[in-house]
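Lay summary. Proteins are chains of building blocks that fold into shapes, and those shapes determine what they do. In this project we predict the shape from the chain. Here is one chain we studied, written as its sequence of building blocks.
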Amino acid sequence: MLKSQTISALSAVTNRSERKSANSFRNSVYAPVGLYTACGVQVKDGHVIKVSHLNTYVIGSYMEHRLGEKQIKTIAIVLRSEQATFSCVMCCDGTTVRLPAEHSIHSDHFNFEYGTATITCQIKSTRLTPTHVAITASGVSEIHGDVQTAWRSKVGDLKTNCDSNTQKVLDYYEKNGFVEIIPWTITKHINVSRGWEINKSPGRLHYFGQIPALNDCVYRYMYQSRYVALHDMDELILPIKVKTWTELLPQLEDMLNYEQDKWKNIQGVNILNYINRVPNPPNYFSNFKIIVNPRLVLKATVHGLLDSVNGKPLVWVSNSIAHMYHFKHFTYPPNTKLVRDDHLWDYANDLIPAVSKVLQASGLIEA
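And here is the predicted shape, written in a compact code that computers can read:
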């Protein structure tokens, strides 16, 4: 997989942020601020950049490699009521290229005035390789800039402020390469809430800007980490049967990775994805199937027998011994509590290679 090219979002007129690719920025990450330019525009440092003429604040911009067509994705904070339109101004080999941008406001904003947005720039030409990008208000032509650091280490901590003792601890972890402290200066621009309920914690942005910070974290570390844990400092995801995430995550991969990409064009459904069971309603006829000794059957039907030798009855088998699994999309009341049942996964290690072998031999998938 390609290494992420991380580029900054440049705001319009007086505030433009530029970020070099992750590879190229490593050599200059410790360089003094403001000593280089991109497409003739001087670059400064900054992690929250205001887009001039708009109530929009750019957090970070990143090359999107996963969707086929090359894109630049920018995480931003926007005033939801503002009818904003954006442009991307890219620096490509010393030449400025302007493209229209699309944006979508994330649905989780908890009714605060500001919300998280993703601004997308489509790069249709394969010849364009941007090293920097400005997010500007549409129709604004003049740009200046501030750069955001591209190189990230293992653990990111977005810090607003803290006391001196906490800072000493953070300094220790940062010095030892365990934590990267990312200044979170949104409070200089927006009155943030200290909670998630607007009626209890007044402000214009939800919980110190938690959601844009989470989204930026995902993109920031996307190609530096196999997994990223998204939780607060007072929250811990702890394994129960093992001690570390490095033990837990391979187990989860083995347990849950039953969606086979190579099967995606095969007609039908992957029954390994059916792990939530609709409970059988009490006092209601439930369909069942049978295993029979054919020498005892006189008349068979869809569910059970109509007649058997000597009229012998069916033997009902307890669910603790065997269970019939019916794989289909059932309809059920919205308040139904589904029963998780992943017993089928016990067969996955045998089933997956066996099915793949047949599909390969039939010429339906590649080996």
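What the prediction tells us: The chain has three domains: 6-151, 242-288+324-367, 290-320.
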